[in-house]
Amino acid sequence: MLTVALAGKPNAGKSTFFEAATRDPVEAANYPFTTIDPNHGVAHVRTRCPCLDREERCGNDTCRDGKRYVPIELLDVAGLVPGAHEGRGLGNQFLDELTNADAVIAVVDAAGATNAEGEPVEVGSYDPVEEVDFVESELVEWLADILDRNWETIERRSRSPDFDVDDALADVLTGFGASEADVAACLRAIEYPDDPKHWDDEDRHALAEHLRRETKPILVAANKMDVAPAEHLERLLDLDRPVVPTTAEGELALRRAAEADLVDYDPGDDDFEIVGDVSDEQRGALEDLQDTVRTYDGTGVQEALNEAIYGMLDRITAYPVEDQSKWTDATGTVLPDAHLLRRGATPRDLAFAVHSDIGEGYLHAVDARSSRDVGDDKELEEGDVVKIVSTA
Question: What's the whole-number mean pLDDT along residues 17-34?
Answer without folding.
Answer: 68
